[in-house]
Design a protein that fits this description.
It contains three helices and 13 strands. It is an alpha+beta fold.
Length: 254
């Protein structure tokens, strides 16, 4: 079955929802189409610019094999006259235009006489196209299913990534909260210790000068221990011992 409309024509096989062949769009609107009565692979397509495209599908399908100018006005109708003398006889094509004129064209011999096996070649061509269209439809369904599965998987992956990111962020927030709580607890303990120290010093009547001297002595002792030396606090002096056995002693003024 052939259909003609807009700027192209299509070939169909009954029972199929996709055409076996759709021609490239023409430069102007196509208005009529006819199969050759003697050659199954030849199609005549009339256009609004007054020309007729002649397609030989066994030769090429991407463009017409010949374009014949007929009239300067749009062609409105086209019909073959029954052949006189069979395939070898004269073949006439009646063409009507928008002005109501009738044009009778005689089809040349090379367009009306085909090869001996043209019928079987055209049948094989249409069968191949039918198989191709069927394969494309099956592949289209498979790809649609694959795309649907991929979209679902992508959505699941995105959801899982968002869940993991939320869980990680929640873990970071909990760790920060724990650190803040520990810092506040240590700060509170430090304040409580300082308050207890102040109360203890006040109760013992220890002066600030004495505390500074005691802290100074403690610092000196810690420094000496770090350097491998000792401090003799009983004599209120500083004793430094070296590898040579020489002892230096100084008295700290009170």
């Amino acid at each position: 079955v052939m259909t003609v409309g807009d700027w192209c024509f299509s070939l169909w096989r009954e029972g199929m929802s996709t055409p076996l062949l759709t021609s490239p769009k023409a430069s102007t609107n196509v208005c009529s189409g006819r199969w050759s009565p003697t050659r199954p692979g030849v199609i005549f397509i009339a256009k609004d610019d007054g020309t007729i495209d002649i397609w030989d599908l066994l030769d090429q399908t991407h463009k017409p094999s010949l374009t014949a100018p007929v009239v300067s006005t749009p062609i409105t109708s086209m019909e073959f006259r029954p052949s006189i003398g069979g395939r070898s006889g004269k073949q006439l094509l009646a063409v009507g235009d928008a002005n109501g004129n009738l044009h009778v064209l005689e089809i040349p011999q090379q367009l009306r006489r085909g090869t001996a096996n043209e019928d079987s070649l055209m049948s094989a061509y249409l069968t191949r196209e039918e198989q191709r269209v069927g394969y494309v439809e099956v592949r289209g369904k498979v790809r649609a299913e694959e795309k649907e599965k991929a979209d679902i998987q992508a959505a699941l992956d995105e959801s899982e990534a968002e869940r993991l990111a939320a869980a990680e962020q929640e873990g970071v927030d909990l760790e920060q909260q724990r650190r803040d709580a520990v810092a506040k607890q240590r700060e509170a303990e430090e304040k409580a210790y300082q308050a207890l120290e102040a109360q203890f010093v006040q109760e013992l009547g220890i002066t600030e000068e004495y505390l500074q001297e005691a802290r100074s002595d403690q610092t000196m002792k810690s420094t000496a221990e770090h350097m491998g030396d000792t401090i003799d606090l009983d004599d209120v002096g500083l004793e430094l011992g070296g590898a040579t056995g020489v002892t230096f002693r100084s008295t700290v003024a009170s």
